[in-house]
Amino acid sequence: MINIKHVVLIFCLLTLTASVFAAKATKSDAEESIQSAQQLWDKSIAVGHEWNTVKPLVAQAKQAMETNDFAAAVALANRAAEQAELSLVQAEHEKTNWVNNLPK
Amino acid sequence: MQAYKLTLKLLFTVMLLVVTSSTVIAEEMDGKKVAFDRKKGNCLACHVMDNGDMAGNIGPPLIVMKARFPDRAALKAQIWDATVKNKISIMPPFGKHKILTDNEIEKLIDYLYTL
Amino acid sequence: MKSLLNTLTVVVMLAVVSIANATPEQDKESFQRFYTERFPDITMEDFGNGVYALDQDARNQWEAMNDFPPYEDDLEKGGELFNTAFANGKNYASCFENGGGNIRQNYPMFDTKRNTVITLELAINECRVANGEKLLPYKKGELAKIAAYMTSTSEGSPINIVIPNNGKALAAYQAGKQYYYSKRGQLNFSCSNCHIQNVGRKARSETLSPALGHTSHFPVYRMKWESFGTLQRRFDSCNKQVRAEPLEGQSEDYRNLEYFLTYMSNGLPVNGPASRK
Q: What is the spatial distance between Cα C80 and Cα C92, in angstroms, rounded to a whole number?
């Protein structure tokens, strides 16, 4: 005997499990995100355009990882990566744009 | 029947909790705070505005914004990335460089329109 | 029509390339002219006083403070350190021309054998190592005191940076120049955004000082630091303001920057060490 209530109930259970799984980043997700942030950060140092906002984000990501808060670690590492990437864009742009800054 | 109702109610509550807790509840900041805070917009470093303390004079005073910026998108563009209009602008690209979030910029603009 | 356009494009491109690749001498002239035209009432010498050349109120306070310079003890200590013999019996004087006196104005210099820029601080540490002593930390501490003492012996001597007409020296100069004019940090500022484009304006309550004369008086005793700091320590402060990560002391980029920036002040008298807020 299947009535509508059952369907709703099952649907709810499914969404609940799905949302719990989706929110759950694993340790290896966190490790991966931190590693790719680190790589972009290293590149930004190499081109001489390191932002000082990146280091603390990576440090916070590692800290979150230590307390097993993998979702936070991924989020922080992604912000670090995004900013390191922007600093690389800046470096590339300034290769030609710097000339516009000369005194006129 | 009664049992079903209860279970359903419970389930909905749990779902709601999971959803709200997984979206980061950022601390709310109003537009004026975003503009004045040295770690956020720090607009006062360069702009005279709203009788703010120790304002700089690098950029033009931010006054009568509604009349001067009838187009909200144009105002947002200036805050998002001032270097589009002026390649060597000293004004930081608040949106492009993630200095402020999109949400913070929207609130900032609401506030600017009160000036 | 098309050929006219082409010619125009070439002319414009040449103009751009030529400012980017002007000779150091031409750069220095336009750099100094920018400030002397902007501030016709300020003497060349006074540019070495930074923000106090522009802001009379700040200058009055500064002059009152300098009746008893806050750096006196540290400067004296620098003299003692300079004159103390190393374990091997030699001393700093043995490493430098003229016994280390009145030479500040020649640094940084380009070493054509090693093809690199040698700052005074680097030379001091190299002198130590050559005599079996350990390296001192750059930017502050004993090294800054010794450099401050050496600077004091050059009081009044015109800055005299030489850029040998050789590819490597010109490349070092050019790298320093490019660093100065490039935007960096999350806030996206170049040094010139503040010290050239907006010189004399106020960021909050801070007047932005002219870059002409920026290097004439270092090491500086900053009240904020409560100690001497070298020019590169000041680079750190300015980099942090724009959310750029400072570089290692005496890294190649910083040495090149110091080379470029000091050359821009050629002809101004050394007037250090000095105090600043």
A: 11
Q: Which helix (H) or strand (E) holds C30?
A: helix C24-38
Find the largest Cα–Cα distance for chain B: 71
Q: pTM of the entire structure?
A: 0.89
C20: which chain A residues are within 8 Å (Cβ-Cβ)? 99, 102
Helices H, strands E: what count in chain A?
A: 4, 0
Are B98 and A83 in contact (CB < 8 Å)? yes
Q: Which residues of A touch C193 (CB under 8 A)?
A: 101
Q: Which of B19, B43, B47 is nearest to B33 (CA)?
A: B43
Size of chain B, expressed as the number of residues it contains:
115
B104 CB-side CA count, 13 A: 21
CB B91 within 8 A of CB B76: no
Topology (CATH level 3) of domain C24-68+165-276: Cytochrome Bc1 Complex; Chain D, domain 2 (1.10.760)
Residue B91 C-alpha, separation from nearest chain C C-alpha, in angstroms: 8
Is C238 marked active-site? Answer: yes
Token duo for residue C179:
């660093």
| Cα gap B95→C188, rounded to integer Å | 12
Q: What is the pLDDT of residues C50-96, one digit of tens each?
A: 999 999 999 999 999 999 999 999 999 999 999 999 999 999 999 99
CA angle, C216 then C222 then C228, to 5°: 75
Q: Give the residue from chain A lying closest to B3, CA to CA.
A: A5
Task: Tell me which of 1.10.760.10, 3.40.50.720, 1.10.10.10, 1.25.10.10 is the CATH number of domain C72-152.
Answer: 1.10.760.10
The total number of residues written for chain C in this structure: 277
